[in-house]
Amino acid sequence: MITAAAARKAFPKIEMARHSRVAEPEESLDALQELEPSPVYDDPPASGKDSYFTAQPPTRSSTLGLSGHNPSYWLSRIHRYSSYTLTAFLALHVTNTSLIPLAARSVQTSDTYLLLTRPYYQSPIAEPILVITPLLAHLASGLALRIYRRRQNAIRFGAESRSQRRRIPWPKLSGTSALGYLLLPLVAGHVLVNRVVPLMREGGSSGVGLQFVSHGFAKHPLVAGVGYAVLVGIGSAHFVWGWARWLGWGLESLVWDGEGKRWRWWEVNALSALVAGVWMAGGLGIVGRGGQTEGWIGRGFDELYRAVPVVGRWM
Description:
single chain, 13 helices, globular
């Protein structure tokens, strides 16, 4: 058996080198060379003339940073930015149909402002940009996000057959998304009565204003009142909760449970109730109490209401 002392005698050069490396750290540090920074690539190009793969320049993102993102990233951006345009349209619409009547205290006076400003967002160019395209993009991107995330879960859990994929649960539906799906048929009904039916019967909705809405409230107060209140209530909650999420005020932004989330829930719902209350104050309090329109204009309103599919026969 070779002892440590015998080994030191047998290999003196190795022992001297070991002591020199330990005893002279300054020399090792002085020998280091400072290099210029250079980019590091995840997949460096192959080098050498005899390489099997042809050397290619590294892949870089574009100037705008539009590469390297999965579909979920782009669908989320479409869903978010489309809500900005819809919010701008809603602000104009609520101003014309609620805030101005609330300030003027007169349906006839408010109708003048509505008919003057409405062409700016209901023109053949502005309406598709401000309303139709953002609404379709918002709805389609939300549905596509749910489908994509479910497919990702199926891949993650290794679901290969059709029966296995069916057992993969759908992503959890948030309260804001649920409000959006509830809002969809209400918005469709509103568009049908105020845009589609006048377009089919009269070629446009230029004659449909606040007096048309007041006439409907006077003739059918229960249906109009309940429908309007539900539309405004759900719409306000959906928009306020959606913007709370964009601004980082949603419940998902809180990492703790308990008192903090309860307070945030009350704060956002209180703001939703405030928005809905102001909206209804002008819509129900002023426009809803405007009364029935008489004469040939009123008879024209009756014909439009009777032309509404399914429910028109009872109106």
